[in-house]
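ok trying again, last paste got cut off:
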Amino acid sequence: MRKLVLLFIVLGLIVVSCSKKSAEPEENSPAVLISPSSYSAVVGEVFDIEIALRYVEDLVGVGVRLNFDSEKLEVVELGREDDFLTSNSGAVNQLTFTSDNDEGYVKLVLGILPASASVSDMSGNARGIGKITFRALSPGTAELLLSVDNASDSDLGLYNSSAELIPDVETESGNITISSGR
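nice, full thing came through this time. structure:
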């Protein structure tokens, strides 16, 4: 009986130890982020926000959706940033880079061809892939919410050179504080 109790204690400690490890975020997890993560603007101001990647390895495809408050912001212009994506002599294939100011979103889907030209950067530096030029419309705080949720939209996610979805991608959204400027 004593051995059985000891066995349950040991198993309990193992379960607690394993659950603690999985609850902590992994270091160097791939991430999609907004840069800058926060910005202060005045109504009528036009400014740029960058969509960037960090800690990516063997990347050949990226699909991102950015949701924003269309009563506070409007997209003026979209621009790709290809320096990182072409750093291994590949070509960028733009599948989608659109915005909808009524619905309040931007969708960016890019691929790198050929797959052998996949790119990696594990330095922790944010590597830009797209620029969004916004105009501030009304005072308040506008959240910029990133999504790479492949379950909600099959275009979204980060993909490796084997056309596999890269797991555990973190998103770091942002916010814009808009003042009336008076």
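cool. The mean pLDDT is 88. The chain has one domain: 28-179.
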